[in-house]
Q: What sequence folds into this?
C-alpha cells in the first residue's frame, strides 16, 4: 500500500492519504449513479420522516452508537467479541428506522398523532436500558434499580380486560383497588 508509512502494517497514515481519500469520495459522489442514489435516499428520508423526527433519529442513532461502543468494549475486555454480534447493530438500526417510518406513515393515513412518538420512546428506552445494563461493568455507578424499573416499564403488560379482572380480585381481597 503506497499510502501507508513503512512502519508497521499501516498503523500510521501519511499526510498524503487524506487528500487521496477525499479525491476518491469526490469521484464517487460525482458519478450520475451515486447522485441518483443519494437523491433517492434523501427523497425517501423526507417522505418517510417529518422534519420534527430528525432530532429524534439523531438521538436514537447516538444512543445506538454509545451502546455499541460500550458493548464492544466490554466484549473485547471479556474476550467474547464476535463479528456477528457487531454486524447485528446495523440490522437493528434498519429495523428501528423502519419502525419509526412505518409509525409516521400510519399517522399520515389515520388520525393517530402520537404513534411515532410512542415508537421513538420505546426504541430510545430500549437503547438506554441496554446502556444502563452494561455501564456498571465498566466501573460507572448507576442508581440502584434504575435499569430494572425502566425495563419493567417497557415490558409490562398493558392494562387490558384480563388485567382489570385480576386487579379487581386483588382490590376485593385487600380493599385497596376500586373499580366502577
A:
Amino acid at each position: 500500500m503506497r499510502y501507508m508509512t513503512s512502519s508497521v502494517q499501516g498503523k500510521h497514515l501519511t499526510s498524503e492519504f487524506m487528500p487521496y481519500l477525499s479525491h476518491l469520495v469526490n469521484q464517487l459522489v460525482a458519478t450520475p449513479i451515486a447522485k441518483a442514489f443519494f437523491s433517492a435516499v434523501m427523497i425517501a428520508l423526507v417522505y418517510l420522516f417529518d422534519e420534527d423526527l430528525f432530532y429524534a433519529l439523531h438521538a436514537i442513532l447516538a444512543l445506538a452508537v454509545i451502546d455499541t461502543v460500550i458493548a464492544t468494549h466490554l466484549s473485547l475486555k471479556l474476550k467474547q467479541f464476535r463479528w456477528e454480534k457487531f454486524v447485528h447493530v446495523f440490522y437493528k438500526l434498519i429495523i428501528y428506522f423502519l419502525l419509526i417510518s412505518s409509525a409516521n406513515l400510519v399517522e399520515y393515513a389515520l388520525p393517530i398523532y402520537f404513534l411515532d412518538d410512542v415508537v421513538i420512546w420505546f426504541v430510545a428506552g430500549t437503547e438506554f436500558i441496554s446502556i444502563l445494563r452494561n455501564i456498571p461493568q465498566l466501573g460507572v455507578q448507576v442508581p440502584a434499580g434504575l435499569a430494572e424499573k425502566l425495563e419493567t416499564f417497557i415490558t409490562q403488560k398493558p392494562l387490558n380486560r384480563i388485567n382489570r379482572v385480576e386487579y379487581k380480585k386483588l382490590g376485593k381481597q385487600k380493599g385497596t383497588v376500586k373499580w366502577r
Observations:
- The mean pLDDT is 75.
